[in-house]
Amino acid sequence: MENIAVVTGASSGIGAATARRLAAEGFHVVAVARRADRLDALVKEIGSGATAVECDVTSDESVARLAETVSGLGTLTLLVNNAGGARGADPVSAGSVDDWQWMYDVNVLGTLRVTKALLPALEASGAGTIVTIGSTASFVVYEGGGGYTAAKHAQTALVGTLRLELSGKPVRVIEVDPGMVRTDEFALNRFDGDQSKADAVYAGVKEPLIADDIADIVAFAATRPHHVNIDRLVVRPIAQAAQHKVHREK
Ligand SMILES: NC(=O)c1ccc[n+]([C@@H]2O[C@H](COP(=O)([O-])OP(=O)(O)OC[C@H]3O[C@@H](n4cnc5c(N)ncnc54)[C@H](OP(=O)(O)O)[C@@H]3O)[C@@H](O)[C@H]2O)c1
């Protein structure tokens, strides 16, 4: 029986690309998200190497059901905490409490819930790995990004704390922090479905990262010999030398 990898937020973008890639690496992938139709299509495409589990990471009951399903599948060695996202670009002075709440719930408490639920199985495997998708927003702040950067900073605090607390246990804790990745939904969700605002994020950027680039990094980090722990990997497109320094072609 293959090793199991759980990927949250697998219905689109980075999560879907990671699920495909990890299946190609030989994992049996458990693809997790709320949109079951998309997961079913992904699992069909991957074939026998994947299982879809509809799950809302903001719900205790839903995550408990996920853990139960996973326990019946085999040996869990990898968890990719990817479900997350941004909502809104308001300045702090006009920040939407609902948006901030949503970002904290999904990015931070979602990571907490799923990690807690699956940690016993990862530990029992004797060689577990947790990869969490943070962001460059996990360590810088920018105007209009208060809610997202606060949530991603908090997610990083969770990851760093967990690594310390698992010292001596057979579970390594890895964080991948992408810069600008062009995915279909991330910016669209951030700007409440406004396609022109979403497109403006990537305007003139010759080659933003794509989801497959991050899937590649996750697969690399997760397939090193188990004593090798890549604490944190920051990855940006060459056009983004820093958060505010984005080269745009005219
Ligand atoms: N794109 C970027 O530029 C970028 C840069 C740095 C970091 N990131 C991070 O990378 C991760 C993925 O981003 P992406 O660009 O691939 O975005 P995306 O395409 O919007 O994907 C977000 C995923 O999260 C899932 N999700 C949202 N709420 C959920 C919930 N309550 N329960 C379960 N799943 C939930 C969504 O699935 P459902 O809606 O079907 O539930 C979707 O599959 C996020 O953590 C994001 O913060 C993205």
How is this structure best described in words?
The chain is of the alpha/beta class and 250 residues long. It has a single domain, classed as NAD(P)-binding Rossmann-like Domain (Rossmann fold). 43% of the residues lie in helices and 20% in strands. The strands form 3 sheets. It has a 7-stranded parallel β-sheet, with helices on both faces. Helix 1 crosses helix 8, helix 3 packs parallel to helix 4 and helix 4 packs parallel to helix 5. The longest helix is centred in the middle third of the chain and has 28 residues. The relative contact order is 0.15. The structure holds NADP nicotinamide-adenine-dinucleotide phosphate. The site of NADP nicotinamide-adenine-dinucleotide phosphate (NAP) has 28 residues, from helix 1 and helix 6. Belongs to the short-chain dehydrogenases/reductases (SDR) family. Keywords: Oxidoreductase. This is NADP-dependent 3-hydroxy acid dehydrogenase YdfG.
Low-confidence stretches: none
> At the third CATH level, what is the topology name?
Rossmann fold
How much of the sequence lies in strands comes to: 15-25%
**N to C succession of SSEs:** EHEHEHEHEHEEHHEHEEE
Q: Report the end-to-end length measured between terminal Cα atoms.
A: 53 Å
Query: How do the strands of the widest beta sheet line up side by side?
Result: 3-2-1-4-5-6-9
* Secondary structure tally: strands: 11
Could you give a short account of the major beta sheet? 7 strands, parallel
Counted up, domains total 1
| Percent of residues in helices | 40-55%
Using only C-alpha atoms, the radius of gyration works out to 17 Å
> Helical element count?
8
CATH architectural grouping: 3-Layer(aba) Sandwich
CATH superfamily annotation: NAD(P)-binding Rossmann-like Domain
Anisotropy-based shape: globular
Identify the CATH class: Alpha Beta
The ligands found in this model are: NADP nicotinamide-adenine-dinucleotide phosphate
Family: Belongs to the short-chain dehydrogenases/reductases (SDR) family.
InterPro entries: NAD(P)-bd_dom_sf (IPR036291), SDR_fam (IPR002347)
Pfam families: adh_short
Protein name: NADP-dependent 3-hydroxy acid dehydrogenase YdfG
